[in-house]
Amino acid sequence: SLSASFQNLARRFQGKDKLTEDNVQEALRDVRMALLEADVQLGVARDFIQRVKDAALGQAVVKGVDPGQMIIKVISDELAKLMGPEAAPLVRAERGPTVILMAGLQGAGKTTTCGKLANRLKKEGRKVLMVAADLQRPAAVDQLQVLGRDLEVAVHAEKGVAPPEVCARAVDRAKRENFDTVILDTAGRLHIDDALMTEVAEVARRTSPHEVLLVCDAMTGQDAVTSAKAFDERLPLTGVILTKLDGDARGGAALSVKAVTGKPIKFVGQGEKLDKLDVFYPQRMAERILG
Amino acid sequence: VLPFGRKLDEKLIEEMEETLLSADLGPKTAVKLMDQVRLAFKEKRITTTDECYAFLKSWLKDLMRDDGAKLRRAESGPTVILVAGVNGAGKTTSIAKLAHRLSRGGASVILAAADTFRAAAVDQLALWSERIGCRIIRQPTGADPAAVAFDAAEAAVARKADFLVVDTAGRLHTQANLMKELEKIKRVIEKRIPGAPHEVILVLDATCGQNAITQAQEFGKILPVTGLFLTKLDGTAKGGAVIGIRDQVKVPVKFIGLGEKPEDIEDFDAEAFVEGLFG
Ligand SMILES: Nc1nc2c(ncn2[C@@H]2O[C@H](COP(=O)(O)OP(=O)(O)OP(=O)(O)O)[C@@H](O)[C@H]2O)c(=O)[nH]1
Ligand SMILES: Nc1nc2c(ncn2[C@@H]2O[C@H](COP(=O)(O)OP(=O)(O)OP(=O)(O)O)[C@@H](O)[C@H]2O)c(=O)[nH]1
Ligand SMILES: [Mg+2]
Ligand SMILES: [Mg+2]
Prior knowledge:
The structure holds two protein chains of two kinds. Chain A is of the alpha/beta class. Chain A is built from eleven helices and eight strands.
C-alpha cells in the first residue's frame, strides 16, 4: 500500500538535501507498484508518474524542507488534482424535464443507482419519473418497478416498444404530466457490441439528455479505460457514478476513468440500499487509491 | 504483441510485463513471472521473443490446468451446487447456463431462489427456470434465504432430482453479517443432505481487478469453494486475476461465461485462456 511505501519513500531521501532525477526515479517505482496494485490502468499510472516526476524535479529547492516530504506532497497534490472536482452538481434543464441517462456494462449497478438517484432528487422536492428501458434482462422492468413502489416514484414501462422509443415517449409523458426529472435505466451492454452501443446512442439522440452518466463498478481492473473510452466515444457523457465503494477494492478505476474521459465522478454508491448514494470526494478517493 | 523472432532485451521484457499487467495479472504475479524470465534470459536459457512467449505460456498453462476442473457429483442422491459471489458478478445468469446445460444433458434440475433480498431477484430466476424448463423453489422477497435452501433440499430429495442449484444474493466479503448468512445457508443444506453442497462455485466478473483475489480468499474462509465461474469473458477484459487466485488460493476455474444467453457457457480451457491473455 502507498502509505507503507510513503514511509519507504521518505527513507530513500534520508541524508539527501534535494530531489534528483535518480532518487526520484527510484522512489516512483514504489508508487507505480502501489497504483497498479490499486487497479489503476497501466498507461494512466505511467502518465501520472511522469507528471509527479516533472512536478517534483521542477520544484525550487526550499531550504530545510525534507525532500521525502516534498515528493509525498507532490504525489498527493497531483492525485487530488487528477481525481477531479468535489461534489460536481447534476445539470438541471433550463425549462422542461431534466433527462438523465444511465449507461454502463452489465451488472455495474445502473438499475439500483436509478433508484438511489430518484430517492435523492425526490427528497430535494423534485417530481421524478423513472423509465424501465432495459427490455432484455429477465425481470429488469420488474426490478425498477419494485424500486419505484418502495420509493413511491413513478415508473414508465411499455411492452413491445424498442428502448429508444420507450424513452422518447417517457420524456413526452414527463412534459405532459409535469415531471421535472426523467431517469432512463438502460440495459447493461458491452462497449464492443456495436448494435447495443448504437441503440444507446439512439436513446440519447431521441431524448437529448442533460446528464449522461457512466455507471462503473469500483472493482473494475485494467479494462476500465477500454470500456470508459468506448462509452465516451459513442455517448455525450457528462459524468460518472462509481458503485460498490462499500467494498474493499482500492478503486483505481476511478483514476483511470477520470483520466481517459475527463468527465467528473459525480456520485459514489456506498451500499445496496436506496439511501446509499454519496457525492464524490476526490481527496478521500485519492487516499483510498494510495492505500 | 511482441515482434516474433527478435532477440530478447530488457525493453522487450518490459513490454511483455506490460502485456501481463494489462491482462489484470497484477504486479505481484506479473513481476514474479517476469523475474523468472529475466533469470532465464541472464542464464541464456531464453534469447528470443518466441522463446519468451513459449516460456511464459507453458508456465501459465501448467498453473491453470487442473484435473479437478470437472463438476463434482454426489455419490448418491441430488448433487447440490451452491453459487455465491459479489453483487452483479453474474450468479443468476450463470446458474441459468448451468441448469440449461445439465438439463440438455438429460438431468433433472431444481433451482433454489435463495436471493430473497434484491428487488425482483426471485422473478429473475423464475423467468429463467421457465425458459429452461426446470422446477424452481421460491418464497417471497424478505423470506429467510436459509429456509428457501432447506425447502429446496427437501424438494430435491423428495423428487429424486439429479441436481439442485442454489442462487444466493450478491454480497461483499466486507459485510460480516451477510457472510454469516451465507455460512448459515451452507450449514442448512449440509444438515439436510449430508455431504452437500458438493460443489461451491464462486462467480467472478472478468472485468474485476485485484479485488478478485481478496474475494476468493474471503469467500474461501467461510465456504469450501470448489470452483470459479469466470463471467463476461466475451468483453475485452482478460480475467487475469484468476491467475493470482490459482497461485495464491489454489481454486480452479471450472466454467467461463461468454454472453447473456443460456448457451453462453464453456468448460474452462487453460490452453485457450492463456493464449487469450497474449492475443
Ligand atoms: N454493495 C453494493 N452493491 C451495489 C451497489 N450498487 C448496486 N449494487 C448491487 O449490485 C448488483 C447489481 O445491481 P443492478 O442495479 O442490478 O446492476 P445493473 O447495472 O442494472 O445490471 P444490468 O442491468 O444487468 O446491467 C445488485 O445486487 C445491487 O444491489 C453499491 O453501491 N454497493
Ligand atoms: N456479456 C456478458 N454478460 C453477462 C455474463 N454473465 C452475466 N452477464 C450479465 O451480467 C448482468 C448481471 O447478471 P446477474 O446474473 O443478474 O448477476 P448476479 O451476480 O446474480 O447479480 P446480483 O444477484 O444482483 O448480485 C446481467 O445483465 C447479465 O446478463 C457474461 O458471461 N457475459
Ligand atoms: Mg439493470
Ligand atoms: Mg442474482
